[in-house]
UniProtKB/TrEMBL annotation, chain A:
Predominant cellular place of this UniProt entry's protein: membrane
Top-level taxonomic group: Bacteria
Organism encoding this protein: Aromatoleum toluvorans
Topology of this chain in the membrane: Multi-pass membrane protein
Entry keyword annotation includes ATP-binding: no
Subcellular location: Cell membrane
Transmembrane feature ranges: 20-40, 52-73, 94-115, 127-147, 152-171, 177-196, 203-221, 269-287, 321-340, 360-383, 395-415
Gene name of the encoded protein: livM
Entry-linked NCBIfam families: PRK11301.1 (NF008450)
Protein name: High-affinity branched-chain amino acid ABC transporter permease LivM
Residue ranges of every copy of the High-affinity branched-chain amino acid transport system permease LivHM N-terminal domain listed in the record: 16-108
This protein's UniProt keywords: Cell membrane, Membrane, Transmembrane, Transmembrane helix
One Pfam family of this chain: DUF3382
Length: 433, 237
């Protein structure tokens, strides 16, 4: 009975405590010079000041973080050991892996190859925003199978949350990012509740309406959103507090002065590019991991057969709401980035066309396929760009290309679905039943 | 007693679909419900899950009143259903389908449960990595049964398991139902149009007509009953 695996030695609370205390001790040693001491410029002379309060917080957070992290990891491990007859899918088809790594390599190298070409990097940034939006919407449409035509609403909620938090309370990009994500997720749940019973066409119409409602509110509620005039001078994100400015405020440093570089406007463009690349990659990892968890499988099962899900004892309400909330949250993150990149937002940016484009990316890519979304975003953003020389025929070309893709690949560019779990042959066939 | 429905009424809007149903299922029994299309067989089964909920009467499962328990919590109490038309998750693999059945089961039982299901249906082990939609109808039915068994139910509900299957698979499915009962001690409530097979495999049966139980008895009694013969057996099933 080789399939019966004895669960790995589970840690007792005392062991976990000891482990966390050890980490806290290391944090203390490291923290004394890094956090506990600081130099202050007092009238030309540098003096050393101690910051023991800060140090205590630093050590405390390390301790709690390690303790909680260990605890979660033990839980995860316990579950995994219990399900040892099956192993997590580790081998994706070679072609997909090669394309995936090639795309990733190209996207990391792109700003290096085109470091002086602002147009290329700007366009690539736009592609990445759509990739991130596509991955977010993929949760709702591709995995959970809930047709959402108003996804742009969550994008708008994210963007406006940041813009408003900044203009009223002076919040920075990094402070606003999680709040905007939470705000968008809340809107996702608010939208989700009334439409739980709808599917297919009916769901599409209601979500379409929701997207429009958000836009109309933004246009008309001038006290809140400044109406069609939009909100301007939204600050750019900083790199750990280093802004990308030519003339940093007195006593502070900018990216260029800190690293001793000559100021260049391209720094910010490239930084924004890498920022959205990281955000998009995090989104990808997050969604891929979720897909292999019970909640992810539940989404896919819901797409396949809602009645069967109910028969399995699934709380379909929660499954749907979680899909809406997580999809919305990712859209919200993309919205914050969008606001920070543009520096100005208005309801104009959040029209139905945007929802349609994002949905087209998901459908064209192949519902549920992560790499498909990347390819489709490339196609949908680059085709109109390439077509600029043909001015009035541009949209015609664009439409033709989309029709051709759908004729050639009716279920999307990458239609094959990856199993979330595979049989561990050795474990399953080794033991007698 | 495993399941006891006492004077259960249920409505679909204005349609009075169940009119005072009394059904009992004892531990270790196979009980079948037969009846024509629209007699209320599936409604009866769904009403166990509260969809539609009983507007009158009481449903007691394993000693507890489940009449008002929310649908999704009922299966967690130990009732598993193999829904009509199988309803497997087509684009997911066989293994993923089986996993969906364990969504709320203790993961510690997983190895034992999957071995039990594979032993019962070796074809599922062979096809574990295959998309469920590519299985034949009979194999899909086995998958649906396997998926239901993964949650270690106390009571297994089967809604028209022979529907749309080739004759050879129909025989096999009823054989499986009998094995489940005799070898694994599973209590089964079976809804069927295929009265002949169902009554032969069942300990007891109920005949449902227009939302009412019109006849009840052992499988043999019902098989021999002239009313049942006239209405369900000699009509050409």
């Amino acid at each position: 009975m080789s399939a019966v695996i004895i669960a790995r030695h589970a840690r007792t609370p005392a062991e976990r405590f000891k482990d966390a205390a050890w980490v806290a001790f290391v944090a203390l040693l490291l923290g004394i010079p890094m956090v506990g001491l600081t130099t202050v410029d007092e009238g030309g002379a540098l003096t050393v000041q101690t910051r023991f309060g800060m140090l205590a917080i630093f050590v405390g957070v390390s301790f709690a973080g390690r303790f909680i992290f260990r605890w979660i990891m033990d839980q995860v491990r316990g579950r995994r050991a219990a399900k040892s007859a099956v192993a997590k899918a580790d081998r994706t088809p070679l072609a997909i892996r090669v394309i995936g790594w090639a795309v990733l390599g190209a996207s990391v190298a792109l700003p290096i190859m085109f470091s002086e070409n602002r147009y290329v990097i700007d366009t690539a940034t736009t592609v990445l925003i759509y990739v991130m939006l596509g991955w977010g919407l993929n949760v709702v449409v591709g995995l959970a199978g809930l047709l959402d035509l108003g996804y742009v609403a969550f994008y708008a909620v994210g963007a406006y949350t940041y813009a408003l938090l900044f203009s009223h309370f002076g919040w920075t990009f990094w402070e606003a990012l999680p709040v905007a994500g939470a705000m968008a997720a809340t809107f996702g749940i608010l939208l989700g509740y009334p439409i739980l019973r709808l599917r297919g066409d009916y769901l599409a119409i209601v979500t379409l309406g929701f997207g429009e409602i958000i836009r109309v509110i933004l246009v008309n509620w001038t006290e809140l959103s400044n109406g069609p005039n939009g909100i301007g001078s939204i600050p750019r994100p900083t790199l750990f507090g280093l802004p990308f400015e030519r003339n940093p405020a007195e006593g502070t440093q900018s990216f260029a002065t800190f690293f001793g570089l000559d100021f260049s406007g391209m720094h910010r463009i490239i930084f924004l590019y890498y920022l959205i690349l990281v955000l998009a990659l995090l989104t990808n990892v997050f969604v891929s991991r979720l897909r292999k968890l019970p909640v992810g499988r539940a989404w896919e099962a819901l797409r396949e057969d809602e009645i069967a899900c109910k028969a399995m004892g699934m709380n379909v309400t929660n499954v749907k709401l979680s899909a809406f909330a997580i999809g919305a949250m990712l859209g919200g993150f993309a919205g914050v980035f969008f606001a920070a990149r543009q520096g100005f937002i208005s309801p104009e940016s959040f029209t139905f066309t945007e929802s349609a484009t994002i949905l087209a990316i998901v459908v064209l890519g192949g519902m549920g396929s992560q790499l498909g979304v990347v390819l489709a975003a490339l196609v949908l953003v680059l085709l109109p760009e390439l077509g600029r020389n043909f001015s009035e025929y541009r949209m015609l070309m664009f439409g033709t290309a989309m029709v051709l893709i759908m004729v050639w690949k009716p279920s999307g560019l990458l239609a094959s679905r990856e199993p979330t779990i595979r049989l561990n042959k050795a474990a399953a066939t080794g033991g007698e039943a | 007693m495993m399941l006891h429905m006492e004077g259960v009424h249920a409505h679909y809007g204005h349609i009075h679909a169940l009119r005072g149903i009394d059904v009992e299922v004892q531990v270790g029994e196979i009980v079948t419900l037969i009846g024509a299309n629209g007699a209320g067989k599936s409604t009866l089964m769904m009403s166990l899950f509260g969809k539609p909920g009983a507007s009158r009467g009481r449903i007691v499962f394993d000693g507890e009143d489940i009449t008002r328990v929310p649908s999704h919590l009922i299966s967690r109490r130990g009732i598993a259903i193999v829904p009509e038309g199988r309803r497997i998750f087509q684009r997911m693999t066989v293994l993923e389908n089986l996993l969906m059945g364990t969504a709320f089961a203790d993961p510690a039982n997983f190895n034992a449960d999957i071995k039990r299901v594979y032993a019962m249906f070796p074809i599922l082990e062979e096809r574990a990595a295959q998309r469920a939609g590519t299985l034949s109808g009979g194999e899909q039915q086995m998958l649906a049964i396997g998926r239901a068994l993964m949650s270690r139910p106390k009571l297994l509900l089967l809604d028209e398991p022979s529907l749309g299957l080739a004759p050879i698979y129909i025989k096999r499915i009823f054989q499986i139902i009998r094995e489940l009962n005799t070898e694994h001690g599973m209590t089964v409530l079976l809804v069927e149009q295929n009265a002949h097979h169902a009554l032969r495999v069942a300990h007891r049966g109920y005949v449902l007509q227009h939302g009412e139980i019109v006849l009840a008895g052992t499988g043999q009694e019902l098989l021999a009953s002239p009313e049942v013969r006239a209405a369900y057996l000699e009509g050409g099933h």
